[in-house]
Amino acid sequence: MDKHTQNAANIWTPEAVADRFEEAAKTARNLPPVRVQGYFSVWPRIVREQWASLSGDEKSSYRAPPTPEATARMQEVMQWVQCLEVEERHLVWMRASKERWRTVATRLGVCIKTAQRRHEKALALVAAMLNHSNTPTVTTVSSSRHTGLRPSIFER
Q1: pLDDT number for residue 1
Q2: What is the SS3 assignment for 55?
Q3: What pLDDT does residue 46 have?
Q4: Rounded to two decimals, what is the model's pTM?
C-alpha cells in the first residue's frame, strides 16, 4: 500500500487524512519563497575572505523543492479543508505543521483535551466527506455545508 493513498477498500480513515495533512504541510514548507518579480539590488555582492565565511552567520542550507506529485497532493488536501469551518482549518493545519498541543489550545482559547477532541472530529469529518464522495473536489466537498447536514463542531 502506498503511503499517499488510502487503504485497499478506498475508505479514508482519520489517521490517513492526518497523514495527508502532515505531508501537505511539509510540502508547503519546502516550496520556494514567494518573491516580488522585477526588483533587484544594484549594490555589489559582498566578497568575503575565507576566514570570514567560517563564522556561520549565513545559512547555506538547501531545501529540495517538492515533486510535482507532492504539490498536486498538497493542492488536493487544500481543497478538502473547504468543508471545514475557519477555526477547524486552523486547528488541523497547526497540528499538521507539528505545533504543540499547548500552543494550539492557547491560540484557540480552550484546554488541550478540547483541542484534541475538536481535531479528531475535524479529521473524522474530512474522512467522512471523502468516503461519501469518491472524487474530492471543491464543489463536492463544500456542497454538504450548504445542505445543513452537520452543525459546527464548535457549537455547544
Answers
A1: 41
A2: helix
A3: 76
A4: 0.68
Whole-number percent of the chain with pLDDT over 90: 54
Least Cα distance to 32 among 60, 66, 58 occurs for 66
pLDDT under 70 in the chain at which residues?
1-9, 52-62, 134-156
H helix runs in the chain, sequence order = 14-30, 68-80, 86-96, 101-108, 112-132, 138-142
pLDDT at 136: 44
Distances (CA, A) of 55 to 11, 52, 60, 125: 53, 6, 12, 50
Which candidate, 79, 154, 77, 97, places its Cα nearest to that of 122? Answer: 154
Nearest to 131 by CA among 90, 91, 83, 89: 83
At residue 33, the 3 state secondary structure works out as coil
Distance CA 121, CA 118 (A): 5
pLDDT of residue 9: 62
Helix axes 14-30, 112-132, angle to 10 degrees: 100
Question: Cell 450548504, residue?
Answer: 146
Q: CB within 8 A of 139, min separation 6: which ones?
A: none
